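dumping this here before i forget
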Amino acid sequence: MTERGWRLDTPVEVLNGVGPALSRGLHRLGIATIGDLLNHYPRRWEDYSATKKIAALKPGLVTLKAEVLGVQARRSFKRKLTVSEAILGDDSGTVRAVWFNQPYIATQLKEGQSYFFSGKFEFKNNHLSIQNPSFEPADDQSSVSSKILPIYPENAQINSRLLRKLIAQVIRLTDRLKDGLPDHIAREQGYESHARAIAQLHQPSSMRELELAQDRLAFSELFMLSVSGLALRRELEAETSVAIPFKLETVNAFLDQLSFHLTSAQKRAAWTVFKDIERTSPMNRLIEGDVGSGKTMVAVLAAAMAAQAGVQTAIMVPTEILARQHFKSIERYLRPLGVKVDLLVGALARKERVAAQQRLAAGETQVVIGTQALIGDTTQFHRLGLVVVDEQHRFGVAQRRALRAKADIMPHLLSMTATPIPRSLALVIYGDLDVSIINELPPGRQPIQTKLVDPSHRAKVYGEIDKQITQGRQVYVVCPAISASDHSGRKSVEIEYDKLRKGQFVHRRIGMLHGRMKAEEKESVMADFASGKLDMLIATSVIEVGVDVPNATVMMIEGADRFGLAALHQLRGRVGRGEHQSFCYLVSESEHDEALNRLRSLERTNDGFRLAQIDLELRGPGEVYGVKQHGLDLRLSGIVDPELIKRARAAAESFLATEKVVEYPLIAARVEELKSVTSLD
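structure:
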């Protein structure tokens, strides 16, 4: 097939230079067709248009053209990492370049050849050097013709240089790409075509043209999400739910039994929920709150109100461990009010499960707590009126309709998350949801002391941990991998478990928890830890959500640089839930300043919303919040621009006021896609 006959769905194997090995590498990046290749956006761009002489370099980001005078890789036994070093020279002087844990650099750079280098020039380890610079051959005129080079997501087989050459073969086909943004809205916003924007991403003619292209594509992403969210909101508002009247006596009876007072933020969130469920249109609300802020208490209050109105509440959680914990605490709060609470999880014996389902179908159970088994075919409700979804950020319209089919009514929905999301991001990702924020912690909680730890000081941390255990406290140790075979160089649960129980903590009771264990094994280990039968739990981030052990006061996270700030903050929130001072130790092998600075932000603040904003700005929405799991493909950083969000949302509202979605196939398809999106699948 010739270039003239290529289409967007043409396999990438037709391109010059793509053999079996490169084909496999492209497929691993999600690139199977020419359309996939053109939609493989760069993650950043390097501007080689303004190089400097070595003698003129000043600390900060620098770009230079230099010859490689020498290059070597050596092993740093103290830091347990590989250091690649090169001496670079031009007619004004020489400079040292350093790469950490990239041993292949020494084979890629050739002595006597010239390259463009771009990196951070700084004083580190007692001398000035360029840290982890990227580089391009200076004699490859095709790759640096524009002097602004896109750097793409890569893998071992496919690098950015190769991707640029492949894209150059198909760049003419950008005019066949469509993004769903109506032409008249693009013109109103002063944007050129989608095709030109994509072409500028891959082959920018100037930084100004690149910025305009990014702005146009980011606006399109935000517009599509805003239209979809607003359309879903309208569709749900047209549905009918049962009105759950507010009764002050129910609230007073609930609060009178508590040994503590609700925070002002909890009261505001609860009142908003009460006003929502009083209406006959279904509530669609998300409660954001930091770890330990008391979101569940608001949900239980809503469940109590639903019970007095004669409708059932289903509380869905992501794990059976959390379901059992919630059942114990919620049943304790609602039993005095005469509310019957049941547990429904897959691990129940068949006889118990059938009995629970029968009580639910007969209306004897007013509140049921469980996993996604609650929406299974064998589960029926008598009169379901409220669904609470914990730590599942999106509960699809299709799932709500499945529940409505069981109970002949569209239930109110209350979602909860302990992953703080910047309001700008929440408005777009959850455009169909109203958002309440609980930004206070219950009184008496001591701030968790967080420390970034050099691996060479691990023994000192172990000593502090042993002191805590001696005082009767418990400890989590989190590793990024399960076994040594999972990820080379990463600390693994199985190896650490074996090492610690035979070494420094041979005298302590240690358990292990990870995702490959059977459900019964996980339940047993977690129960032992919660009851105090274990001093230490070595685990993966499976404990990030829904493990509540107030006696645990230490969280030690190995390979902390492997986690995002949101995940680290969630893990840290597993401690500090009791009366004792708690500690979080972040152990990092990384030498990258960006990674270390990110971790230091955890030392400086316990504010999850501040950390969420930092993580968003550093890593982008797709990486931070796993939005691709929710069908939301946010690949450009426009999400952090409040003005762009405001414009996109206003354009979406105007569009829906004057246009019919069905007349725009790409937009209609997007709305239908989001109807079924759910993280419960």
